[in-house]
Amino acid sequence: MIVIKKATAYDIEDILVLINKYTKKGLLLTQTKSSLLRNLSSTYVALLDGEIVGTASLYRLEDDLAEIRSLAVNGEKSQRGIGKQLVHHLINETKRLQISRVMATTDTTIFFEKCGFHEIPASEVSSKLEKDCFQCKDFSLCHKKFMIMEVSKNKVDKVKQESINIS
């Protein structure tokens, strides 16, 4: 059974190992121990049999817009719905915080489409561009897509804490 919980300072080393695997492939931005500590209150981990097998963060860009960041799943544990459960947990957190939209910057549009997101032009997330993209050393070479979901602020869903088949 997959359990999603808020990350703690004790989880940082394991989170860095997961994120760094994706960073080396150019799929995620580099994180440091200090950057993770600064954002610890908005970072979550997925546990399988007590082992951290996934992580993701929720970052508020605007009053009505949050971003899912640093979504990473242990490759040996992929295809078990871990990433999807993390995303659904962060969608529910977005609802709880009464934020009306949640976005992701990704190369993996199919995954986020299966989670209910749709692609949008960069011009619709100018705050993301200004806060992050324009400062990135790889901005001119970037091929990432922007995905967004409108969320209902009225009801927080109960996400099943079990593996979800995403095929």
Give a short synopsis of this structure:
This protein has 167 residues and is an alpha+beta fold. It has helices at 12-24, 33-38, 82-96, 109-114, 126-131, and strands spanning 2-6, 43-48, 51-62, 65-73, 101-106, 118-120, 145-150.
The chain-level mean pLDDT equals: 79
Share of β-strand residues: 25-35%
Q: What CATH architecture label applies?
A: 3-Layer(aba) Sandwich
**CA-CA gap between termini:** 19 Å
**Sequence stretches where pLDDT stays below 50 over 5 or more residues:** 158-167
**Helix content bin:** 25-40%
CATH class: Alpha Beta
* Order of secondary-structure elements: EHHEEEHEHEHE
- Spatially, the strands of the biggest sheet line up as 1-2-3-4-5-7-6
| CATH topology description | Aminopeptidase
Domain N-acetyltransferase: 2-148
Protein name: N-acetylglutamate synthase
Organism: Alteribacillus iranensis
GO molecular function, one term: acyltransferase activity, transferring groups other than amino-acyl groups
Description:
The two termini are 19 Å apart. This protein has 167 residues and is an alpha+beta fold. The chain contains five helices and seven strands, in the order βααβββαβαβαβ. The chain has a single domain (2-150), classed as Aminopeptidase (3-Layer(aba) Sandwich). It has helices at 12-24, 33-38, 82-96, 109-114, 126-131; strands at residues 2-6, 43-48, 51-62, 65-73, 101-106, 118-120, 145-150. Helix content is 28%, strand content 28%. One of its GO terms (molecular function) is acyltransferase activity, transferring groups other than amino-acyl groups. It comes from Alteribacillus iranensis. This is N-acetylglutamate synthase. Keywords: Acyltransferase, Transferase.
